[in-house]
Design brief:
binds nicotinic acid, elongated, 351 residues, six-stranded parallel sheet, 50% helix, alpha/beta, 5,6-Dimethylbenzimidazole Phosphoribosyltransferase, Chain: A, domain 1, binds alpha-ribazole-5'-phosphate
Length: 351
C-alpha cells in the first residue's frame, strides 16, 4: 500500500509552461498552422509530460502482464486457459503478435507473471511476481482480496520503475490472460453504471452460450459481489484481474516518473480507467494507440477522454497496438527536432 500511495503522491499535472512553449515552436514551423494535425497535439503532450521541448522517446518497452482468470470456469471464452501459459513463455522467445510488431518498432518486451495458473520456470525470461495462481471465480465470490488487488498494482509499479531506472523513456501496456475481456467488461459496467450488455463483446472467442451468457455471468458477478463504484480497488478486487491491476500500476509509475505511457486496446484502456480513478492527473501521461474492435473499448476511451490514433480493426491485445503506435511518437519528436521554423527557412533563402 505504501508503494501505491507514494506513487500516487508523486504524480503531478503536466508541465503547462512547457506545453505553451512547444505550441509556440510548432506554430512557427514552416507549415500551414495545424497542418501536422495530431502529430502537433502529441508533441505538445510529450513536452508537457517530460518537461522538455525536445523530448527523448527512444528507449521503448512494452510491459506484458500475464495472469489467469477463475471466471473461465463459467464458459465465458472458447479458448483453453493454458493458452495463457503458452503465450507467457512465448513472449521472451519473440513468437507472439506483439513481439512481431515490437521488433520493427524497436521496442523491448518485458513479460511479467502476475498470476498465471501454472509455475513459470525461472530461466524462461519472464519476471516472476506471481500473486496467486489465477483469480478466483467472480461468479462465486470476489476475484481476489483487497490486499491482492493492491499487490497487483504494486507489481506493475515495481516492474515499470525498474525499467525506467534502466533508461527506458517510453512505456506501453500489454497483457495476456485468457478470459480477461470478462473482468474488463465487468469493471467497465460498474464504472459506467450500465448494463453489461452495452460493453461486452466477443473477446478472443465466446463459449457455447455466446455473448448473452458472458453478459449474464458478468451481471450475476456484480450482483453477488456488489463492488463499490467509488472505490477502484474494491472493483478491481471483486470483479477484476491481476494483470489489469498490474497494468494500472505501470500507468501510474510512468506518470510518477514523467514518462509517456502508450496504452493498447480494450483491456489496457480498462486498466487506464482504474489508474484514472486512483489519480485523475494520470490522464495527462496516457497516449492512446489504436481503436480496438471490442465494443467496450470505444466507450472506455470516451470515458477517459482519449481518441485512439489508429483504426486497424485489431483486437489482439498483448500490447500489439501500443507497439504499432510507437513510430507516431517518434515522428512527433522528429517534427520538433528536425523541422525548420519559417524564420530559419527564410534565412537559408537569403544566404
Ligand atoms: C492464441 C491467443 C493469443 C492471444 N493474445 C492475446 N489474446 C487476447 O485474448 C484474451 C482475451 O480474450 P477472452 O476474454 O475472450 O479470452 C487475452 O489473453 C488477450 O490478451 C489472445 C488470445 C488467444 C486465444
Ligand atoms: O482490445 C483488446 O485489448 C482485446 C480484444 C479482444 C481480445 N483481447 C484483447
Amino acid at each position: 500500500m505504501q508503494l501505491l500511495q507514494q506513487t500516487i503522491q508523486n504524480i503531478q499535472s503536466a508541465d503547462h509552461k512547457m506545453m505553451e512553449q512547444a505550441r509556440e515552436r510548432i506554430d512557427g514551423l514552416c507549415k500551414p498552422p495545424g497542418s501536422l494535425g495530431r502529430l502537433e497535439t502529441l508533441a505538445v503532450q510529450l513536452s508537457g509530460i517530460t518537461g522538455e521541448l525536445f523530448p527523448a522517446i527512444d528507449k521503448k518497452a512494452i510491459i506484458v502482464c500475464a495472469a489467469d482468470h477463475g471466471v473461465c470456469d463459467e464458459g465465458v471464452t472458447s479458448n483453453p486457459q493454458n493458452v495463457t501459459v503458452f503465450q507467457t513463455l512465448n513472449f521472451p522467445r519473440g513468437g507472439t503478435g506483439v513481439c512481431a510488431v515490437a521488433k520493427i518498432t524497436n521496442a523491448k518486451i518485458v513479460t511479467v507473471d502476475v498470476g498465471v495458473k501454472e509455475d513459470i520456470p525461472h530461466d524462461a525470461g519472464v519476471i516472476i511476481k506471481k500473486i496467486k495462481y489465477g483469480t478466483d471465480n467472480m461468479a462465486k465470490g470476489p476475484a481476489m482480496s483487497r490486499e491482492e488487488a493492491i499487490q497487483s498494482i504494486e507489481v506493475g509499479i515495481e516492474v515499470a520503475t525498474e525499467e525506467i531506472n534502466k533508461g527506458i523513456n517510453v512505456l506501453g501496456t500489454g497483457e495476456m490472460g485468457i478470459g480477461n475481456t470478462t473482468p474488463s467488461a465487468a469493471i467497465l459496467s460498474v464504472l459506467r453504471e450500465c448494463n453489461p450488455n452495452e460493453v461486452t463483446g466477443f473477446g478472443a472467442g465466446v463459449g457455447p452460450g455466446g455473448i448473452a451468457h458472458k453478459v449474464e455471468v458478468i451481471h450475476n458477478a456484480i450482483a453477488l459481489n456488489k463492488p463499490n463504484r467509488h472505490d477502484a480497488i474494491d472493483i478491481l478486487a471483486k470483479v477484476g484481474g491481476l494483470e489489469i491491476g498490474a497494468m494500472a500500476g505501470v500507468i501510474l509509475a510512468a506518470a510518477a516518473h514523467r514518462k509517456p505511457v502508450v496504452i493498447d486496446g480494450f483491456i489496457s484502456t480498462i486498466a487506464a480507467l482504474i489508474a484514472n480513478e486512483l489519480e485523475p492527473n494520470v490522464k495527462a501521461y496516457i497516449v492512446p494507440s489504436h481503436a480496438s474492435e471490442e465494443p467496450g473499448a470505444k466507450i472506455a476511451a470516451e470515458m477517459l477522454g482519449i481518441e485512439p490514433m489508429l483504426q486497424m480493426n485489431m483486437r489482439l491485445g498483448e500490447g500489439s497496438g501500443a507497439a504499432l503506435a510507437f513510430p507516431i511518437l517518434d515522428a512527433a519528436c522528429s517534427m520538433m527536432k528536425n523541422m525548420a521554423t519559417l524564420e530559419e527557412s527564410m534565412l537559408l533563402l537569403k544566404k
